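REVIEWER CHECKLIST
Item 1: Sequence provided? yes
Item 2: Single chain? yes
Item 3: Sequence as submitted:
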Amino acid sequence: MIPPRERLISIEDRIIGARFLWRLPSCLRHPVGPEGARPILRQRLERREADFLALAGCEYGDLERIVGQEGVKGALHTLYRQGVYLVLGEFKVRRAVVRGGATIAADPS
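Item 4: Structure as written out by the authors:
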């Protein structure tokens, strides 16, 4: 049984849910079928490594070497083992990023 305290939904989750529901009708009115999705997916897959390198925020040459040797998935595993990762709450800027003795405050800006 889930304790009552853990059943509560945070205000942030409620806001995210409300935004999703608000935008859902527009998405349903303009669905993307297989014909439209294929070129988008193809382009994203072609640019996957370049996009990853642009977003990772590490030294480009080091990441480029790792991605070239191991691919994006292997590079992500390597970065994770080295402590370079975000958990969901950090990614959504709900809590500070804490690694070792360093802390990066949660600041949406």
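Item 5: Key structural point noted by reviewer: The beta strands are 97-99, 102-104.
Item 6: Recommendation: ____
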